[in-house]
Design brief:
single chain; 232 residues; ADP-ribosylglycohydrolase fold; 13 helices; ADP-ribosylglycohydrolase; Ribosyl_crysJ1; Ribosyl_crysJ1_sf
Amino acid sequence: MTKNYTENLFVGLCASDKNGGPTQMALQLADSLERKGGFDIDDIGKRYLNWHKRDGYDAGPTASRVFQLVSKGISFTKASEQVDYELAGRTAGCNPAHRATPLAMLDVSDKELIDITIQEAKLTHWHPLAADVSVATVLLCRKLWQGEDWHAAVANTRKGRLIETQRALEAHKMNELNGNGYAPNVLAAAMFFLSNSKSITEAIERSIDFAGPANYCPVLVGTIGAAKWSNN
């Protein structure tokens, strides 16, 4: 699964990520997984931090503030908690889901993958929904790549998720979508275009037209779509 999944993932990601940050962070994550032979949270954190120091303009305000604090010597855990406090709990953003899909290639159980994805998300985003939407995104990619059909993969991904995430994975109408960066809204919008398009190209194009310059949902359309249409 590893090589083909990663290649397809980055084809979809590069086609859908118009601002650059998600692709760069996903590359850092994928490289860490490959070089370390598995999940190494400390190495991943260091790679994100070093990338941000070099060229992290599209890291997003939450992650950027965390990286700023870590650069001053604070641990990722304490920095992530502090930023959540500073923002009055408003850290349920989509950055973790944007960057985390390389985790789907790990040779671990679904339970362990969930735990790993939560750890990765909390490097920068302390809110449980940021992690839960990231978990849903990673699990859905894994199940699709393993050959489950779309409806079965979605149904299985919904199991055990927070209610907001479960609702985001349900069918929606265009007029119900929201283009902001709140993770459940980003996932819901992505699911609409993935469910109502005939190809990854169509899904990405429609999502980009909807999202505008912020480009929140297209990134998930690209990564999940790469798994959904992997055999086309």
